Structures are given as structure tokens and as C-alpha cells.
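tool_call: predict_structure(chain=1)
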Amino acid sequence: MRITKIKPSLLTAEGLQRLEAEVEYLRNTKRAEVAERLHNAYEDGQDADFVDNAELEAARNDHAFLEGRIREIEDVLKNYQLIEEINTEPHDFVCVGDKVTICEEGYDEEETYLLVGAAEADPTNGRISNESPLGKALQGAKVNDTVTIDAPSGLIEFRVINIA
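tool_result:
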């Protein structure tokens, strides 16, 4: 039997703290809230003349989602690598953990993203995954390089403006 090692989740120190705080909140606060909601919905359903209890079903769904999120975070926290430990050498090309400023070819508006692991990607807040199409294309690029991604609307080219 061959044992394959699971690739660690890449996290920034900030991302690690955020996930630790989230799982703590979900375990200690949110679990109690959902349990109370489940209890109340079950109790309310006992007096009803109908079998269908929408609130109980919604509470069960919320409980399942909550437990799934807790397991997801616990899995990341069991097997992670800090990005800061990877990028110890100075470099002039894009690596995970770098802040990259790009500009779509044909446009003047610049966008800056922090290239992070998938576990803490949040594009609306300027954090893109190293596993996303743009993240993959940017890795290894240097200032003034053009990278191309295959988007649903077709090929899009971005020029690397700055790496920090």
C-alpha cells in the first residue's frame, strides 16, 4: 500500500490567526446557538399537528453546514505551512506570499493582490489563491511580464506592474 502525503495548505500568519479564531468561535459560540435553535425548533414541532417543520429542517441544515465548516478548518490546521517560511530568500519574480500589482492589457486601472493559499483566498478583499487561474499564471512572472489566463469570456492578458 502506498501512502501519499497530502499537500499542506499555505497560510499567512494572519490567515492562520483568522482560521484559529473562526474555529474557536464556531465551536464555542455558534455551536451553542445552533443547538439552542435545534432544541427550540424540535420543541415547537412537538405541538404542531403537521409533520413538516420548516424551522427544524433549517436548523438541521445550519447544523450540518456548521459542522462541515469546523471540519474543513480543522483539516487545514492539521496540515499547513506558513508562507513566510517559504519566501525567505529575496526574489524578483512572483511567489506565494507576494503582493502583486497588475494591469489588464488595454486598460489603465491597476489592481493589487496578495497571492495566498486556497484556504484564505478572498478576491473581493485582494487575496487570490495560488491555485486560481490568475494565481497560477502569475507565479514566476517578473515585473513587466505579461501573463495570459483562459477566462470564460476568452483569453485575458495582465501585465505585472510591481512585486512586493
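agent: The first helix runs from residue 13 to 46. Proceeding to next step.
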